[in-house]
Amino acid sequence: MAEAYPCSDSESVSSSDNDQDWLNKPGEEDEDEEQEQVTVVSFFDDKGFSDAKSMLAYCKDKFDFDFLGVRDRLHLDFHGCVKLINFIRRGVKEGTALPQEITAEHLADDSLLIPVLADDALIFCLDELPERTSGQAQEKGQAAEVQNSASGGGPVVDELLQKNAQLQAELEQLAKQFTNYRLAVEQTLDKRWGVDDEGEACKTAAPVAPAEQQKKKEEEKDESAYYFESYAHTDIHETMIKDTVRTNAYRDFIYANKHLFEGKVVLDIGCGTGILSMFCARAGAARVLAVDNSAILDKARENVFRNGLDRVITCVRGRIEDVTLPVDKVDVIVSEWMGYCLLYEAMLPSVFFARDKYLKPDGLLVPSHASMWIAPVSDAEYVAENVDWWRDVYGFDMRAMQAGIYTDARMTVMPTDAVCGEAHAFRMLDLHTAKVADLVFEDSWQTTLSDKVEGLDGFLVWFDCFFGESREEAVEANLTAKEWVAAGRERVAFTTGPYDTATHWRQGLYLIDKEKAKDIEVGPGKKLVGNIRYAIPEDHARGLNITIAWALEGGDSQVQTWLLH
Amino acid sequence: MNAIMQNKHIFKDKVVLDVGCGTGILSMFAAKAGAKHVIGVDMSTIIFKAREIVKVNGLEDKITLIQGKMEEIEMPYPKVDIIISEWMGYFLLYESMLDTVLYARDRYLNKDGLIFPDKATIFVAGIEDGDYKEEKIGFWDNVYGFDYTPLKETALSEPLVDTVEMKAVVTDPTPVLTLDLYKVQPSDLAFSCPFDLTARRDDFIHALVAWFDIEFTACHKPIRFSTGPHTKYTHWKQTVFYLKDVLTVQQGEKVECSLHNRPNEKNRRDLDIKIQYRLDTQDPNRQAEGTCLYKMC
To answer: Which Pfam families did the record assign (chain B) (predicted)?
Structure first.
């Protein structure tokens, strides 16, 4: 299997013992990637075109063959078009004349799915062609026809029906594989051309200058590509799986609530190596759709196969916004979407998108709630080691290196006693009902300083995550994960805060710039109040701008903004 | 630092080029050591910080900082007397700037100019590392009850940069590559080296560990430092290559090995590494032979 599985990630090493790989000559293996121009070859001669439309127009003009006409007459879907292309290419290659009128029978053979031309650009470009009516109706129609003509018969017909069902299952399998193939092709092309759903973007973008628009899109694209690429390597998944606070929580919830998964259709968004999907499958799910847009999906597919769960779990590569799922609705959405300070990397909007599009009205989101916390920090030692250190580096003043210290959030695991006041839950998200607009907000907070306070060095932000068993289950806004678990039977929740086992999310530390901020007289028992704002930076859609305002009760307020990037 | 500060007589009144100067610390050492002028070159925007730092330390007359590629920038001096550079990467060569240093040497260094450092050697030894191998590699055999072996292959192919304890070292160390910075050519960085590892004691070998030593032979008193398991921690740590097999060796036995390294075709800063090993003994149960491919990227 290892050899057959598509390794689109050109960075990864072939782990086979094949010395040929090792000896590849320079350039041999990267020809494909280097090639930027795509040439669509004409059906009937060697002429090449830069896009599918002009090639088809040329064939219509010169050879009187109307590809789009045939497509629409036969109501061909994507696979039908692939077959039609290969039918023509095969005919031309073998020198057989095309039939006067191409019919569905000509395209019945599944072997026509195999490209006749290697890397046939026309197949890659199919999606660019003008839209037509849905092909699904046609497929259903065909199936009905077969049913009808068979309904009058005896055992022979039964046999035929059986065979038919078997073939249909095989076809479905093929179609599934092809969907993945198609997604892979689309992505490769998108990467090559830096083009993404062009039509839609143009419609809404009238007032913006086209060049600027294009540039912006490319930047977004770059950031997005980088984002998904960052999840292609093994070590990040090792870190996540070995984060037992995280993985145990999902496992415990899924295995302790098998009744929520038995016989259900589950969607796993950002499935990574497929661990959560496999938990769900083991818990009895009828079907799990595991979606991820990173190259790690190839590994997930292999993991699923090796664990004998490939009949239950279908792996689909692509962005959840773009993929075509084989079901209309799902019973459960499970996803590990949480980023630093909960909302960094902005995956939650994708989960909301999937929830609104695919989740049944009574469906369940796992996890169901998340809350965000803030607490004041006093840690002279940390400041000495990380900030003041630059003042004297081998006898040189390197204070210039401190710059980011006060403008960037620092992800770190802080010791419990660095927290110098009670933590405040500033926002609780009920994930079943929350909206994208709820992710940009300004909330107030307050705390009473403890006897740990020596000076105010900054603020610590973290999140708790709750796994409710039903949509109706509410989590009170100021309850910690621990309190919520203690209050019910077999409840699952976890915290990423400084009072419990550290997780790979660590905590977000926001250091106060003491050269700019006014010193305030803190002390045990004093009350500190303020606001915290989450916003999305203009130039970094997956980042966060976090602004915190603080003041002693009744005193002047100060404010500072940090970037999480 | 010592190499520069203890050799002020060498730096006095010399023109010095600092390749990949980063925050400018080496440039500042050279300036303090009495250099006539120091040119620091770095592609990264860190150079803006370096400029600030040089200025607050009052050395802006002595140090010129240039942002750009060594190959593209315009140098204020046609030739320099000394090149200093901290170009070493993990496993010496991974993400290393050696190519750039060699370019600077060929283009800017005076005929009898000096390079700091000027000698580098990679060593390899066999180690017993059962527990950690189990944690990093065996882990994938059973992940929460699932078979994750597809990721095991990937994990095996990624050399691990980590610290190795001296007591884990089972064999004598053997040098596999020595670079003389005055002579080495970029093409020498693709190399093959056969070598033997001799067991110091009866033990298992789970992996090979590699590290490097660096020498400043131009110094009045040669200065050298090592990044090996026997010495103080450095940020380079060591590089561990897990073998597919576990070798069972007896004291005095030799494992025949070879190491092949070449910069990756697509990205010269990445490395493709192949290690072959063979344990030839009378005991058929301990006979072992294998080839492992690694990629540092």
So the answer is: Methyltransf_25, PRMT_C
pLDDT band at A82, cuts 50/70/90? Answer: confident
Residue of A468 and A231 predicted with greater confidence: A468
A397 interfaces chain B, CB cutoff of 8 Å:
yes
Q: Do A356 and A392 lie in a common domain?
A: no
Domain final position from A362, A391, A421: A362
Q: Which residue of A has its CA nearest to B267?
A: A11
Query: What dihedral do alpha carbons A361, A366, A369, A371 form, nearest 10°?
Result: -150
Regarding whether A140 and A236 lie in a shared domain, the answer is no
Spatial separation of the C-alpha atoms in residues B185 and A285, rounded to whole Å: 60
Q: Tokens for A364?
A: 């369940």
Q: How far is CA A344 from CA A247, A426, A565, B296, in A?
A: 19, 17, 8, 29
Could you say which of A362, A397, A415 is where a domain stops? A362
A403 touches chain B (CB under 8 A): yes
Give me the residues paired with residue A48 across strands.
A41
From the list A336, A483, A490, A515, the catalytic residue is A336
A267 pLDDT more than 60? yes
Same domain, A423 and A401: yes
Is residue A99 in a domain? no
Q: What is the pairing mode between strands A265-269 and A287-292?
A: parallel
pTM over 0.90: no
Indicate if A522 and A377 belong to the same structural domain: yes
Residues 6+ apart with CB under 8 A from A95: none
How many other C-beta atoms can be found within 10 angstroms of the C-beta atom of residue B21? Answer: 29
CB contact under 8 A, A17 and B23: no
Is the CB of residue A11 less than 8 Å away from at least one CB of chain B?
A: yes
The domain of A140 spans 133-179
pLDDT at A180: 63
- Answer yes or no: do B158 and A15 touch at CB < 8 A: no
Distance to chain A for B4, nearest Cα, Å: 13
A160 or A12, which is more confident:
A160
Residue pLDDT, tens place only, B135-148? 999 999 999 999 99
Q: Are residues A484 and A505 in the same domain?
A: yes
* Beta carbons within 8 Å of B55's beta carbon, 6+ residues apart: none
Q: What is the ipTM of this complex?
A: 0.84
Strands B63-67 and B37-42: parallel
List pLDDT tens digits, range A179-211. Answer: 666 666 555 545 444 333 333 333 333 344 555
Residue ranges of chain B whose CB lies within 8 Å of a chain A CB:
1, 23, 25, 28-29, 49-50, 52-53, 56-57, 139, 143-151, 153-158, 265-266, 272, 274, 291, 293-295, 297
Residues A317 and A381 in one domain: no
Cα–Cα nearest to A280, from A318, A253, A249, A240: A253
| Cβ of residue A167 closer than 8 Å to a chain B Cβ | no
Same domain, A529 and A412: yes
Quickly state the pLDDT bin for B118 (edges 50, 70, 90).
very high
CATH number of the domain at A317, please. 3.40.50.150
Q: Is A346 contained in some domain?
A: yes
Count chain A–chain B contacts defined by CB atoms under 8 A. Answer: 97
* Same-domain status, A355 and A397: no
* Paired sense of beta strands B254-263 and A410-412, if any: unpaired
In a domain? residue A267: yes
